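Per reviewer request, we include the raw input and output of the structure prediction for the construct analysed in the revised manuscript.
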Amino acid sequence: MAVTSSTDRGEWTCLIRQDCLPVPSHNSVQTVLEQMHGDRPSCVLVCQQERLVGLFTEQDAVGLMVRGYPWQTASIGEVMTPAIAVLKIDENYELSAIQQLFQRHQLTHLAVVAADDRPVGVLLESDLKALGQAEATFQTQAVQAQQQFQQELNRYQGAETTLRQIVQGTAAETGEDFFPALVENLATVLGVRHVLVSELRGDQMHSLAFWSNHQQQPNITYSLLEGACCRRAVAEGTYCIASGAQQTYPGNAILQSLNADSYLGVALTAPGGKVLGTLCMIDDKPLADPVWAESLLRMFAARAAAELCRQQADRALEALKNELEEKVAERTAALEDSQARLHRLSENLPGMIFRYLTRPDGSDAFLYVSPRCRELFEVEPEAVLSQTIHPFSFIHADDRPRVQARIARCLTQNSMICEEEFRIVTPSGDQKYLQAVASLFHQPNGDVVWDGLMLDISKTQRAEIALKTLVAGTATATGANFFRELARCTATALKVPYVLVTERSSNGLETLGFWAEGTLQAKLNYEISQTPCEVSLREGSLCQVQGVREAFPHDRLLREMQAESYLGVALKDSQGQAIGSLCILDRQPLRQVELAEQILQVFAARAGVELERQRAELEVRQTQRFLDSIIENLPNMVFVKDAQSLCFVRFNKAGEELLGYAREDLLGKNDYDFFPAQEADFFVSKDREVLATGNLLDIAEEQIQTRAGETRLLHTKKIPILNDAGQPQYLLGISEDITEYRQAELALRESETRLRLALEVSQAIAWERDLEFDLVYFTGAMTLPVPATLSFTELLGLIHPLDREAFQQAHQTAIANRGSLQIEHRIRVADQTWRWYQVQASVITDASNQPIRLIGMSFDISDRKQAEAELLQAKETAEAATRAKGDFLATMSHEIRTPMNAVIGMTGLLLNTPLSPEQRQYGETIRNAGESLLSVINEILDFSRIESGHLDLEEHPFELSHCVAEVIDLLANRAVEKSLHLEVQIDPGVPAVIVADSARLRQILVNLVANALKFTDQGQVIISVKSVAASPDGQHQTLEFSIQDTGIGIAPKQLEHLFQPFSQVDSSSTRRYGGSGLGLVISKRLCERMGGQIRAQSQAGVGSTFSFTLPVRVSLTPILPRIDPPTPTSQPWDNSFALRYPLKILVAEDNTINQQVIRLMLQQLGYAADLVANGQEAIQALNQQPYDLLFMDLQMPIMDGLSATRQIRQSLGSAPWIIGLSANAFADTQAEALVAGMNDYLTKPLKLETLAAALQGFPYPQSLSPELFTPELFTPEPLSPADQGMKPLAPQSVQSELAHDTAKLSLAEPGATEEPICISYLRNRFKPSSLCRLIEMFLEDAAQHLQHLGTALEQENYPYLNHVAHSLKGSSATMSAQELARLCQELEQLSQRSGLELTELDRLALNNLLRQLETEYHRVATALKQEWEWQDQTLA
């Protein structure tokens, strides 16, 4: 649009800027920004066909970057600001109109064009404003000159008005309101921002009024150090800073906070010249007239000082008044406190304070009684003071005369102190004991004032009575009766129904005295746990005034007594150990607890002493009985004689039995009364010798004649027993009858003689080791191999050094355990040769079970040891032969499999080439022969494993029906070739899932079924399975497998050779059927190894039945459904395989033939592999470039495959994927390869399908979708002539190109490409017909995926959403739809959060992603349909 012209023209044209940059609208933003950066124009004028269409400024560029707009790919026409208003250069406009145009459209730039709309320049809003400001400045200066004159005139008129206003504003104000009125009027009249009046108190300034920013402010306090200006005003009387206050005092916090520029302060002084404070004004601008302002402040400072003096005087008077009032209050409080203390004293004294008055006429009265009167007499003090009740009326009738006589005596004798004890009976009937003590004050008129105290001494009196009762009751009691009397007297004295005196025993407490309900009870035993007695014994005492049953709910005795309260004290011995308890129980809460506890403490100590004494007496009696029992029951004769008369005073039972005399006949008599004179003289002489020497006398052997006339041999020991004076009082004798021992000793000597003769005949050696002297005695053979007597240390020196420690340890163990030993050892004999001996020995102990000797036999076993050594040597020789056989089989397996790899591999490659029927027949014959030979080799290896015992079983749960089905699938073609019926019958009772070795079971079934098919030309082969036995719990079953055929059968004579190694039923040179003869042997050994048995039944010409049993465990855990790998399509083994499974492959193989075989196999699958000859070269190749997969032979020169694999894993980690190659088919070799770090293992000879299956096992990234690539989609690439021979390492290959193209298909970042698909990639990789078919498949599949994504999102089925997004991502990447694949990846990642709680923002993001994905899919579909139409036209 354009504005209308005005009459004033030409002023604005001088402001036009012509440094603008005109650019076409199609120029890129990037180009325009570069030009602006170099030329620095005012703005860019965007034109179309040289006509202005818009503007672009630096602000527009900044806005694009802030908003994140993709300006790198935009044109300037897309981001410009349209020219909504322009000025014509040939027209004149008013400046106001132009300003309105800027304001209305909020413009900063306004374009100026010529008549033909070509751009001329630009008018800036800032230039227009600058012109207006220059005119305004000139007018302002003229007005200021006129105003200055008027200000001077008004100044003098205002001074008079100001003074009048301040006087009028403060005249009516006094007291606290004066200062706020003063500062407000001063600030208002003088036009300053801050006015402050302050009082000086010490070195602190306290504001009395503070006007700031047009209002009163809270009072403040500041020190003179902080208020530097006020400090100067106080010191000098007046202080003024017309301007620059903060510069004068830099860093002053007060001036900074008030933004002060000027300051004027005047001191407030008292009549005597004392400074009372300051009055100051502060402003944020300089003072206009400091002299006039100072005179004004001085005038009102005098008025403020007078007011401040008056207020200070008022405050001094007020403080004096308050001080007087506080002193009066303190005196009053002290008096009240004194009265309160007296009142508390009277209340807290244990008795009643009283003042009692007696008059000469005999009348009396209580003048004062304390509040304790209520507790003592159960009457109110007021009733006593009003003489309604007289306390003396409660005195017990028996005590009243004595009390009255005591009062009269004190009055007549003019006593100063009177004290008396008496009883009273309270209104409730309670009897109390009182003690009264009073001071007498005799008055001149004859009156006597008694000031005194009455105390309740009932507890003390009752305690004394109780103690007297207890002492009187237990004084004469002793023994067990003491505790019963203690319980009775305690119950009587303390008036409780239950008292127990108990003794601690091993299983609880036992009552010594039990008083209950007025009678003594029988003894009682009860558990101490969880009872109050347990606490009293542990703590020393326990008092439970009430609620004892609730505190100890598990105490049965408390429930039976219905006890409410308990008090118990422990009985302790002299060591302070609790040995019992004394306790009382009541059915009501305990009263007089302190009294009861004191009494129980006293008598608990007495009872503890008594109980300890009785225990000591009992222990003495028990000890005496124990000693009497020992003496009485000793097997030896014990006697005691009087030291003076030598008459017998004690005899035991053994002595009676030995001598034949009764104890009554012996006591009081001497030796001469029973024994012959000669024997009696001998006995008496020995007695005198013992008594004379005072020492123990040991008589090794003495004869004695019994009452029956029999002579016995005794071993006697005699010792004197001394009295307190050290003189012999008794003689103690112990005699052991050794008659049988002597007879046995004689018999033993005879036996030893006979034994020595027997040992000499048997060549055995008997020996005895004396532990006291550590000597070893040998006897036995005529010629002993060692000396007959030697020390044990010398014997150890003869033992072989390798056997010495075990020999010594065996002896020590046997001696320590009082047991026996058995050991074999070598010993150096007299001819300095080593002989083997077997030793058996036992330990002999004395009467106290202490070991005294070892007795043993040694047998020469040297001949047996030599035979054992020969057997061991033979065993080692056999094992070496077995190892040699295993090594031979492993070597032969490797050497045979290596050429077999070339035969079978090359034959397979040959059959995949175009051949004539005759050539194909020859090739098939060669391959079948090779596979037959390989089968024979495998059978020989299996048989070798079984024979060597190296066969390990691996049990696991599996489906039996699936295992049988695998056998059928493997052998079904053989049955079809021979038109045989192959049937499986599994009994319903057979468990579905069993635990066994499925691989070995499958091997047995394959052998037996293959034999059945081989020997059957017509008819059928039936496989049946049934259960023949089961455990009671059903966890174990025995299954029977039967394979029945209608084949040629076996003659009875040939059945016995059926399961022998390398044996055939028809072993003639013209036999029809081939084989190694190991299949049935292996099946039989496997069956037996698994715990079963195999048997055969056959009839020649009819058929055979082979059956075997197998014990298995039943598994209750179901097997998850199997997911079989996808079955390859027809003709899978062509060069399209490498496109489906793109890999960069390295082969390490030293055998040139095997190199050729695996290279050609990989080449047939579409791979161009690099070859190296050993492990070291493989490592060097990996260091030069990365490989996805490495085929590694195990046996290679320089560095073998296992060593190379370990080094690769240490340096490179898990990459690359390594597949081992070996002609060794042993399982331990495969295990060693996997342990070394290989990922897979293949056994030579290799087959194309085995190699392809290993390649399919490679862990491909998820972004690849091999399942979409079928072989017919790819254009075959014929092998180049250079690929027909050996190919060295080559950095460029078909595989590397494919890897490069695959990398191009990786998910791109948004905005990386504008095309939805990569047409060149699709045309270069697919045939036209295949591409059309692939587009059709993708469009149909992707449309279904989009529908499923919407349904899953609507139902919030996020796992399914994740699955569908992942699938669509792979197919999109295949079709080179990078943006579509990226959106699928984002959708997949966001849906993976399904395990967490998705927020509303997450759901919005999912919906937004799905909409973007649908939009991108339509772009991709459109592009693919266009490509399909183009391809279709090309084909047409």
